[in-house]
Every structure is written in structure tokens, then in C-alpha cells.
Amino acid sequence: MASDIASHYGVCCLPVNCLELDDAAVGDILKAILYEFPLTELELHIPAWVLALPADHAIKLGLYRSIREGAKGLHRIREVAPAVDAMCAYEGISGAKVNAISLGSGTASAELQLPRALFYQTLSEQSGFDVADDGDLMRLLTELSAVKADYDKVSSAIRDARETGYGVVVPTVDELILEEPEIMKQGGRYGVRLKASAPSIHMIRANIETTVSPIVGNEKQSEDMVNYLLQEFEGDTAKIWQSNIFGRSFHEIVSEDLQAKLKRMPDDARAKLRQTLERIINEGSGGLICIIL
Predict the structure, then answer these.
(1) Where would a tag sit more exposed on the chain, N or C end, judged by fewer CB atoms within 10 A?
(2) What is the reported pTM?
């Protein structure tokens, strides 16, 4: 009868013998009454790495959808546990539990657990690195921290080179090379010469130009080809560069030509350019004349 009443009216029904009530039975009755009170707040904890995923990621969307479905019709405190269990319908959730319920304030706290293997799989997909366990993660973070330390030294110079065309990586104290002190004589006086040197990296932005000029025939045929390209790709120059000519895309042809020009500068010219820069920095210069042979 008690179960029929509970299912028919949607409430908790406890059959008790009032003549034999004890403290435990009274406690159960009070607990059942309190569990019928409205739920004011459900604090749901999910792994932090899920929150860091993009908003349109499949795992995040599926988890949030499962939470919304499980929380439908959640109004009373006694409905918290069934609702949390219903959220496990999402295949990515490995477990769920209710951590705490405050009957005085009508709040509850629950936790959704996802498999650790899913974390490694998602991390590998998002980062492009193969991470299978904590060992791989530790090695990856150690390597990336070293790379970041190196990049932090040159990041400002790269930014300056992109914005102004010239950037300088200032040497650190650890890179200073100190030579032994020397006694020097100047006139009738003596002194001590302390000399130090350090490598500095200079970044120069140089625009490289190239032109693709396929020979397709006479002037009329060239005009037809230009009109075809503009009409075919509706003026989208990015798509035009992906179009093929003679079995290769314009983008491939231009990239190869740019690479060839970058490698065209001979080693001795690079060395002379570096030596010239060193003289300008160390000796000073009011101007610079370059003769290209």
C-alpha cells in the first residue's frame, strides 16, 4: 500500500506503527519530511579539463546535454540522487555521486567523474602530442617548459620585428663571457681593464617578393584565363591561389620560389652582414653604405 501511495501521489510514504515508535523511526519520518522540501541549489562538480575545452567540443556538448536531461523535473531534495544517477546516461561519464546535502538551506553538492583515459585521449587530440599516461604528460610538460623559457627570451624581439621591422634579443647575465682583468697603462697612470662580451640576436624583417607568370598563349587567351579565375572563385583570392595550373597550385609554385630566394643568400654574405652589424654596435656609426655586387 505504501508503495502504491508513493507512486500515485509522487511523495514519500512510510508505514509505521505509532504504538511502537522509537527514535530511529522518528528520525526516518523527519528525514523524509525534510527531503520533500524544495531544492534551492545543486552544485555540480565536473573535471576542470572539461571546462577548458572549446565551447563546441563534442565532450563538452554531450556532458552538458546529459546534465540538462538529468536535471529535468528536479525540484525537491529527494530527487537529487536519482537526477545525478540519470546524468550517467552520457557514455563519457564513468561515475557520479552526491557529496553533500544541506537540509537546512536546501542545497546539494554532486560530482561527475570521467575516465582518466578520456582525458589523455582528448589531450592528445587537442595538443597534437601523443599522451598516454602521467609519465608522457610529465615529459611533455618538461619539454614544453624548456621551449617556453627559450621563446620568452625572443618573443619581444619577434614582436618588434613584425611591428617595426627590427628586433633585438638582449643577452642575459648568464650569457656574459668575462675575460681576465688586464693591467693597462695610459700616459703615466695605470688602470685595470675589465672586458666582457655576450651574444645578441638581431631579427630583421625582409619582405620577399615573387611573381607567377604562366605562359598560356596570346593576349586574348591570357584575358580569358584571368576572367575565368575571377568568375570561378567569385573574386576570392585565397581560392584562386589554390587553383591548379599545369598540375600544380599557384600556392605551391609561389612557396617554392620563396624558399629558393631565401636559400640564395651565400654564406660569406651572411658572415659579412653579421660582421658589419657587430662593428656598428661596438664601434658606433653615423651612417651605413652598402654596395651589392
Answers:
(1) C
(2) 0.65
